[in-house]
Amino acid sequence: MIRVERSARPKVLAAKEAAWKAEIRAASTSEAREKAQQKYRHKQVKEALTAMFHGKCAYCESAITHIDYGHIEHFRPKALPEYFELAVDWDNLLLACGRCNGPENKGVRFPGAAEGGPLVNPTEEDPNLHLIFDFDPVTKLANVLDRSERGQTTWRILGLNRRELLHRRSDFVKKLRVIADHYNQDAAARDIIDAAVKGDAEYAAFARQLKRAIATGSHGPA
Q1: I need a surface site. Which of 80, 138, 155, 173 has the fewest CB within 10 A?
Q2: Residue 162: which domain range?
Q3: How many structural domains comprise the chain?
Q4: At 3, phi and psi to the nearest 5?
Q5: Cα separation, 158 vs 73, whole angstroms
């Protein structure tokens, strides 16, 4: 997970967000309310989120759009009464994969402070304040660890170390780490690492940690 600057509201939300929220407030039945909430599915909203997150999951940083459409994720769940109106609030919307956002992980869960929350929102704060993106050279595993209670709640609820994700991410970071051994001597290696830390790259949080280690001289042999 990396910090992502929220882009400007898509035109449809700039024009209609307030009216859509009013419709949700005015709904007299759950069916009417759910129908009003569905306005967030507008094509412009999805396109803006896809561009803002470079087609990656806001949480696990896996690329989505080459294999799936991705979810418009409500950071504060639209199913909870206190957040009904936020179904169409631009500041509450993220792009997420179906696994992070699925019922086995986040779903409609949103823990409060008493439960170790709230979850880390990459558009509102720096995930590095709460999470560690660690590669263990012995086990060859790229784990998401925690710096804070909120960090632990976040990686656990989102399933950021679930088996399939951990395997793919670890394989990716393991290769980067080998390339990083040649960062200071080989221009091609530098190009690969420098590209890997950009916002549109998968698992950029781990690549950035690796590059910081190179800069401080703490990166050793793979």
Answers
A1: 138
A2: 127-216
A3: 2
A4: -70, 135
A5: 12
Distance between CA atoms of 77 and 110, rounded to whole angstroms?
7
Beta bridge partners of 71: 96
Residue 54: φ, ψ to 5°: 55, 35
Confidence (pTM): 0.94
Give dist(CA 6, CA 52) in Å, integer: 7
- Output the six-digit token pair for 62: 């896996």
Task: Collapse the DSSP code of 182 into the 3-class scheme (helix H, G, I; strand E, B; otherwise coil) and give the result.
Answer: coil
Written as six digits, the tokens of 170 are 């670890």
- Give the residue from 79, 110, 141 where a domain finishes: 110
* 120 domain-assigned: no
Q: Indicate if 91 and 139 belong to the same structural domain.
A: no
In tens, the pLDDT along 147-160 reads 999 999 999 999 99
CA distance 11 to 14: 5
Cis previous bond, 118, omega within 30: yes
Confidence of residue 219 (pLDDT cuts 50, 70, 90): low
CA angle 195, 57, 168 (to 5 degrees): 70
